[in-house]
What we know:
The complex is a heterodimer of chains A (about 170) and B (about 220). Chain A is of the alpha/beta class and about 170 residues long. Chain A has a single domain, classed as Glycogen Phosphorylase B (Rossmann fold). Chain A has seven helices and seven strands. A seven-stranded mixed β-sheet of chain A has the order 3-4-2-1-5-6-7, with helices on both faces. In chain A, a hairpin with a 2-residue loop joins strand 3 (about 50-55) and strand 4 (about 55-60). The model of chain A has no long low-confidence stretch (mean pLDDT about 90). In chain B, about 40% of the residues are buried. Helix content of chain B is about 45%, strand content about 15%. Chain B has one domain (about 1-215): Rossmann fold (3-Layer(aba) Sandwich). The longest helix of chain B is centred in the first third of the chain and has 25 residues, at about 1-25. The interface of A and B includes residues 10, 112, 157 and 161 of A. Chain B: One of its GO terms (molecular function) is N-acetylglucosaminyldiphosphodolichol N-acetylglucosaminyltransferase activity. Chain B: This is UDP-N-acetylglucosamine transferase subunit ALG14.
Amino acid sequence: MKSAFVTVGSTSFDELILSVTSNSVIQIFRELGFEKLVLQIGRGLVRPEPCTFGDFTLEVFQYKDSIAEEIQRADLVISHAGAGSCLETLGAGKPLLVVVNDQLMDNHQLELARQLHRDGHLYYCTCKTLTDTMKSMELSALKPLLPGKTEEFANFLDRIVGLEKVD
Amino acid sequence: MFFVCVAAFLGLSFLIALVIICRMVILVKHKEEYKPGKSGSVRVLVVAGSGGHTTEILRLMESLSPCYNPRHYVIAETDTMSKDKICCLEVSRKYKYAEQEYTIHKIPRSREVHQSWSSTLLTTLHSLLYSGPLVFTLKPDLILCNGPGTCVPLCVSALLLGVLGIKRILIVYVESICRVETLSLSGKILYYLSDYFFVQWPNLKEKYPRSIYLGRVV
């Protein structure tokens, strides 16, 4: 069953929850072949009831210890611009649409989402442009994000501190 | 209150200026020569912040060899999530390598999210009172941090130990991957105070030429 996972992170993003559960967006989900939508709503005041209508299911929860499983199960992740959610989703190799909260001014987390968008790893929109973006985006065109070079960092640090290489 | 703030500010700026000058003269010259790893192991103090900062720094810790032992983690007092993440990583390390040791220490946060800058100064001074003795007790060879506010007082304490000739501590700063165009406040301060300063995006390398750019490392 093709499913999408929406995550707002540790705070709230009511506008996003309202947008993704609006009739027009649900309609687009169905046109794209999605049959399930899972919402992580955090501290939000907008709390849609979990329900099933026809062949479409809506699941809702506030928080879970780890959203890794939800990401793993999803065919598309729609996320706030938080670095954690972005990196976790891309790390899992899942297509990602970041919805920017334009009511948060000077949010430095946007820098990362914007850059990853420029590099072709994710799509990027606001609640107002969500429907248009969902209609036009091509998930197969997204480039996978290669894992960070932690090994190179470790080797560099070894040299800095003068640890001899043991093989 | 106002005068206390001004006095605290002047005092701190004087201290920082003094530290920077002393450091420039004494320590930077010998940065390349100081190789604590020659003895076979490196005591590390890891500053885990909260949330994203912790995730990032733990990914770096994961890649380090068992020679980085023991590892002393410092977290903010109000941070509950980080402790679990650290324990989780350490359990897996214990499984991989024998004789690994770690400890977790809590210090007051130097800045809560949304806290004003003037009161940040006071809380930073407050956490300096805690971080000084902590760094002195642990005497690590290396401090590894990536930007939570808590790392500034810890690094300043480490510098002081070096300046006072008590213990030379290498300060390695890795700017968070979130910073693409601008440095964080901690980054702006520690660009001058750290021994090795890593950035993860090319734009920052251009703006801050002394930084080290290896690509994305987390």
